[in-house]
Amino acid sequence: MNNAPNSYSRTRKRLMAAVASLAVVGTVGAGMLATGTAPVLADAVRVEAPQMPSFADVVEHVSPAVVSVKVKAKIQPTADDGSDNQDGFDNLPDNPQLRRFFKEFRGFGDQGGQQFGMRPFNHRNHGNGEPRPVAQGSGFFISEDGYLVTNNHVVSEGSDFTVVTNDGKELDAKLIGTDPRTDLAVLKVDGGGNKFTYVDFADDSKIRIGDWVVAVGNPFGLGGTVTAGIVSARGRDIGAGPYDDFIQIDASVNRGNSGGPTFNLNGQVIGINTAIFSPSGGSVGIAFDIPASTAKQVVQDLMKSGSVQRGWLGVEIQPVTSDIAESLGLKSDKGALVSSAQDAGPGKKAGIAAGDVITQVDGKDVASPKDLARMIGAFAPGKSVDVTVWRNGKNETVKVDLGTLPSSDKQASNEDNSKQTAPAAKADTLADLGLTVTKAEKGKGLVVTDVDPDSDAADRGIQPGDVITSINSNEVNTTDDVSKAMTDAAKAGRKAVLMQITRDDSNRFVALPVGKG
């Protein structure tokens, strides 16, 4: 009996321990059941890394200034042969490379072309003369009263223009002026007293390769599309015209972006989208912008008078190669070599002649023919400029009163349109040059009748039918004249001579090594 309480106590303690154990297990089990649908997890992964800059602030401020441009035209009746003849290429010069460039870069037909902006609609004119859609591009306001900029190739075939703002409003616009040479155009909308959000041009001289840029536009008619990239190159010449100086960017731009702006991170326009390079017709990361500095001046002229008047020197020019520089005694291959001076041009009146190398204009160095074209084109007609030329081994400066650049269909040409033909005369061989020549029909110059395919002359493109008119600015009418010019060059320590060639009524210069065949 004395052991009973102890036994009871031990039994009671065991029971209490078992209940406590069950309670713990039950609590854990209940917890697992309660959280079975949402288990307790570890913290989500988060990496503390440098963040890329956001373009959202820039886009928010500039987007209201960017518009879509819709263009309609009164389509001409279908031709008798069934063709529409609406590609607009009939008025282009007969230059296969130029035509191929615009056909590829303008994106006509179903070829997936490489120029955005002109996105033709499949249509036929049924004879009613009503305006039909022909193009769709982009643009942007440059003033609060409704002036906006786009590409010339977007509006060139249009008769009716509609601007669609960022908030979807459609406004009628009128064409103020165009400049085909730079592919720029200005439109104007009437806001009914409302003020438009507008943007300004940047100082593109401060743009560096690698700078971030943002392109805003209307690709494929989608409207309000933003892409970003960097400036990938500057000073690009894509063969579009005499004033090529494009900024290359890698932001994604496509057909429909034409005329749209490219912004820096301050919301200023550094360039205007005008062309892309793409074998497929879509963006491959190579796009070209008209620089803001070019656009600003052209746009001001268009707003003021509806057209752009440029200075004109009236000379045909070609690059100065290292061989040409050597033949003329120039220290570098910079400048623009005058291949001919047009009779009615201001350059010839001022004394500039074939064989001169233009090295400066108003004290500013001329790096290349493109550079000279841009410099002269920036002056107003009638402006008097000092032109420095390299002539007979020294610099000379002449004052030229610039004329007005003729329109493309009125460019001056040489008066003598007859082609030199070689008469049936005895041919002479210039063995050192690899040429066979005979006297020209009128006794001025030597006609090339044969070219040694292994000669320097062949490597430099001289062909049978070319007429050699001078060497180192000295007329040549006989093989003795050529031999004398070669000898004089060798005595002067020159390694090459500069030969003036006439072909198809145009002049060019070719440098040939002295004493080599």
State the oligomer: single chain
Termini distance?
A: 139 Å
CATH architectural name of the largest domain: Beta Barrel
- What is the name of the CATH class of the largest domain? Mainly Beta
Number of helices: 10
Q: What profile does the largest beta sheet have?
A: 7 strands, antiparallel
How would you state the average pLDDT, rounded?
Answer: 79
Enumerate the spans where pLDDT stays under 50 for 5 or more consecutive residues: 22-33, 78-89, 100-127, 409-425
The assigned structural class equals alpha+beta
Percentage of helical residues? 10-25%
What fold name stands as the CATH topology of the largest domain?
Thrombin, subunit H
The best one-word shape is elongated
